[in-house]
Design goal:
Helix content: 40-55%
CATH architecture of the largest domain: 2-Layer Sandwich
Largest sheet: 9 strands, antiparallel
Order of helices and strands: EHHEEHHEEEHEEHHHEHHH
Distance between the termini: 57 Å
Number of domains: 2
Shape: globular
Structural class: alpha+beta
CATH topology of the largest domain: Alpha-Beta Plaits
Length: 259
């Protein structure tokens, strides 16, 4: 699920108490009822991204059924949605299926990660074979040229246009981005001239569009799994945000003394 904030609100949303309390409503609603649902929150200016992982579609179904049967939880979620309504300009949701054959050294444990590279590929209709060949060549080239390269590929199956793929790369620091640019020649050498030319042809043939985004994990707005908290408590369990104290009204005696 991704949410785009209104331009007039986005410039200061990181400091806006209304937004933080709105997010807190979502977190505490699930925490109070100890639902199995877990999500983490990645953020940049204007755009927020929430990811929830399920081991199966059946697990997703069970979560939805549990929420529907819990009137108090459903009411809490409705309340959180109303609070977010005035801040959001748009909201998109999608269901993505993990494609192991299109992934390279995917990471199951990202508790130590701090950033997420997101690449969104839109593949032309009828070009799935070309796309699969392109991914195969990319995996072979990066697998040989960069021993640290890794990504997970997810295909959109509900909630949008067919042929949409997410390629996610979690990073410990942005130094990894610098390293990626510094070893481009090594990767190109591993791919080889012939395969590189073929990849260019396949990309032009099958890729309709490509979007890239960089997000930062935000623990204060996340509901991480317990094992993540245990692995890195200093990051995933920040100090609780407290409401700003209401200024104390002066006593009547003080007012009279000033008059």
């Amino acid at each position: 699920m991704s949410g785009l904030f209104r331009p007039a609100r986005s410039a200061h949303f990181c400091q806006a108490p209304s937004h933080h309390w709105s997010i807190a409503n979502w977190r505490f609603a699930f925490h109070e009822f100890t639902q199995p649902l877990r999500f983490w929150h990645l953020t940049r200016i204007c755009l927020l991204l929430f990811l929830t992982r399920y081991d199966s579609f059946e697990g997703w179904e069970k979560d939805n059924a549990a929420i529907a049967k819990n009137a108090s939880l459903a009411a809490s979620l409705d309340h959180a949605g109303v609070n977010d309504g005035d801040l959001l300009d748009s909201l998109d949701q999608g269901v993505f299926y993990f494609r192991d054959s299109m992934s390279l050294r995917p990471m199951a444990d990202i508790s130590k990660m701090r950033y997420l590279d997101v690449m969104v590929f839109k593949i032309r209709a009828g070009k799935n074979r070309e796309w699969q060949e392109l991914v195969k060549l990319a995996k072979e080239g990066y697998g040989k040229g960069d021993p640290q390269a890794h990504w997970g590929t997810f295909e959109l199956v509900y909630g949008g246009e067919a042929g949409t793929y997410l390629v996610l790369t979690a990073r410990k620091s942005l130094a990894e981005v610098d390293r990626g640019f510094s070893i481009e020649n090594d990767v190109m050498s591993a791919i080889g001239e012939a395969n590189g030319k073929r990849m260019d042809e396949l990309f032009a043939s099958c890729v309709e569009s490509l979007q890239t985004q960089l997000f930062a994990f935000n623990p204060a707005m996340s509901y991480p799994a317990e094992e993540w908290i245990k692995a890195d408590p200093d990051f995933w369990k920040p100090k609780t945000v407290t409401a700003m104290a209401t200024p104390k009204k002066p006593a009547m005696e003080d007012l009279k003394a000033k008059q």
